[in-house]
Amino acid sequence: MKRIVLIVLFLLCHVCQSQTSSYLDSIFSLQDRMSKRQFVQTIVSIEYDKALTNSKKYLALTQDAEKIALELGDQELLAKSYAALSLAYHFSSKFDMAIEYTLKSAKLYQQLDDIENYADSYISLGWKIKNRDLEKALFYMMKGILILEKSDTKSIKLIGAYNNYGVLKQRLSQFDSAYYYHKKSLDLCVVNKDSIGIPFAQTHIAEVYIKKKQFDLAEQYLNDALQIRKNRNDVYGITDSQLYLGDLHYAKKEYRKAIIHFKEAEKMASKNHYFPLRKYALEYLYKSYDKISDTQNAFLYYKTYTYLKDSILNKDTNTRIAELEIQFQTAEKEKEIVTQKEQILENELTIKTRNLYAIVLGFALITLGIISFGVYKRNQFRRKQLLKELALKDALATIKTQNKLQEQRLRISQDLHDNIGSQLTFITSSLDNLKFVSKEMSPTMQEKLTGIGNFTTDTIDQLRDTIWAMNRNEITSEDLHNRMLNFISKAKNVTSEIQFNLKNTIPNPMTFSSVSGMHIFRIFQEGINNALKYSNASTVNILLENDNNSFTIYIEDNGIGFDLENVTFGNGLLNMKKRALEASGKISVNSKLGNGTSIILTIPLQNTSNDV
């Protein structure tokens, strides 16, 4: 014990003396100065906030701890190493690996009969799958909480459990319940003098007040949390607090103030490799700029956000997470089956003992009845187990079928991109080369080649839009809004004479099938193209809104207009009406000479989800 205290004191002195090395660098330097066992114990004891000062270095340390623990054959140290590795992978945005090591640590803790850490593994698993299945996440976390409360109502592990469970309750808009669990976490932090947990609980309580629009109370809690984190020099915590302050001003519609906090958080998160925090900051930076109609910055941050989101959450990662979850559920079912078999054996032994006494006492008929009852119960149990196994196999088959369908969609879109897309690009390049080489070609031929080249380029753009739709099972109103921003940005490159204004007033994203979403986007494209070609307008306004019954897009320009009674509709307007019908909606075109043109597309709400 004295030796461990001396090592800790040495570590603290070493950190204070080194101005250029971080806390984690100092631990690396101690590897040759202590035993392997002590080195692993030091790594798995690193506090949460210090681990997050550099996620890459913390990951490297925990990987070393795993190797040494395996070499020592120490199961307890190995379980703690797995738990630390799970945290490191989580904050490196490698979510499938985080879940895998959570399950590894849970299995070892179960074998070691370490109830507290085994319960904590349930809580950790629930937190890691919250974005995929909120209902299961709540189930796993509450199961872990109940186990911990039964063991020790003041366990320090309940601090994070209560806090994170409250976050999930917020997602369900159960704000009173969320406040209850955040307050329990805060009170437990005070009892345990946990200076790391106190600001986390305070920021989550503030988040509840933000949702309830009690902004003064929210700001008080956020400022208290930020001050504690600054006093501790908690870089991760300060980044987290900046995000919450941004949320506060965003909710108050003070978008320029929100941008200041989100920018500071994005800068700190990028420097320290806090990928989930950076992704959140980028998302709300582009949303804040969009709210103040700064289209250029909104599009810039949206591109960065989309790239980071796609790099973190991709098809392979989601598939792996689903597989790991199934493994965990299967392991739990197998454990239940073993327990039930043991119970059956115990019951059978009891029955046999009773039968023996019955034979001794001469009650042959009673003995026969007991045996018959036992056989019946056993058969009933086996039947139920068989039904459970069949249900599990059906669920696995369904998941495999869904994965195959998604792979087929991706393969088709890839073929379109690689084959047809590359061939169209080759045609465009060939036409450009032909025009350049054939200098004596007649103007008429030059014009025809230019027309063919423009047609081919438009076809490529339409093919990309089609591939975009095919790669999604569904399209949200937010996806459409962002796609429209991209199209308007391209339109601005074509002409600088028209001012485009796109406004999205939909509070919560709506969901369309990929087919309906594509029809809506094509109608929007056609409306903008018509304004560019024929309206002679200086301003085009686009509005997205919804009410209780429908989703609506308005496209209005201040151009020359036209006489609806004396005009023949071209293919463009006819195609727009056809697409509206196929999306189960309707479209109306209003125009007067000299008063501009308006196009209104309306889609009933019952057709915005679960359609094909």
Automatic annotation (TrEMBL):
PROSITE patterns to which the protein is assigned, alphabetical: HIS_KIN, TPR
Positions annotated as TPR repeat: 199-232, 239-272
Keywords, comma-separated and alphabetical: ATP-binding, Coiled coil, Kinase, Membrane, Nucleotide-binding, Phosphoprotein, Signal, TPR repeat, Transferase, Transmembrane, Transmembrane helix, Two-component regulatory system
Enzyme category, top tier: transferase
Transmembrane portions of the chain: 356-376
InterPro entries to which the protein is assigned, alphabetical: HATPase_C_sf, HATPase_dom, His_kinase_dom, Sensor_HK_TwoCompSys, Sig_transdc_His_kin_sub3_dim/P, TPR-like_helical_dom_sf, TPR_rpt
Molecular-function GO terms, alphabetical: kinase activity
Signal peptide: 1-20
Catalytic activity: ATP + protein L-histidine = ADP + protein N-phospho-L-histidine
Superkingdom classification of source: Bacteria
Annotated Histidine kinase domain residues: 415-607
Stretches assigned to coiled coil: 314-348
EC number: 2.7.13.3
Name this polypeptide is given: histidine kinase
